[in-house]
């Protein structure tokens, strides 16, 4: 990461999905245009705030399960977003101090705050790569990836609330397959994805808002989300709404309020 990269102008002329997510999470690293867009989205789908929180909770639980029960010590987190503590490496390193995490995103604002993602334990290591999931090969070719992660050992690929920003014309399944094919046996995919399954008209309005603001989205059905796990061994309870994936307390929200499919699969 260089100062020239960090100094890049941040486009505040239109809302950005990462900054809108920060607004949903109650953060402060967004601009007025993002707040306005977030409020417009919330007017259509009031559950967007709890959906964002449950997405974060799923990431925490999936990370702990992979570290505690499956021996994962390495993560590649793409579409990192603006840092919100505890970040993935903090969760992983709270279980295994020597965990290594590479974060990847292509938003200048995320890059600006990337130093928050570098506060690793002495035993572990973290790195930030400026990369776009739509160009998986450039990410895989990044020198930082090989410097931090041992690609001969299992790696957890974390794609949280990301792939609904990759429409079908950008080959989302091919992208995920390309990322997984270079990972060895025992690696994992942890993925969350918004869905219109419980209220199609509302989610169509939400898609229209994002698309109209210049952020392409494609929300997918349970079957379409499950397809991302083809060839993997799904962990129980399979692909379920976020608050039902190994919850630590009894869920109180409805599936429709969450509208986010989640799952974790292990590569044989």
UniProtKB/TrEMBL annotation:
Keywords for the protein's UniProt record, in alphabetical order: Methyltransferase, Transferase
Pfam families in the record: Methyltransf_19 (PF04672)
Gene3D superfamilies in alphabetical order: Vaccinia Virus protein VP39
Statement: the UniProt record of this protein carries the keyword Manganese: no
Lineage top rank: taxon: Bacteria
GO biological process terms held by the UniProt record: methylation
Gene Ontology MF annotations: methyltransferase activity
Name under which the protein is recorded: SAM-dependent methyltransferase
Organism: Streptomyces bauhiniae
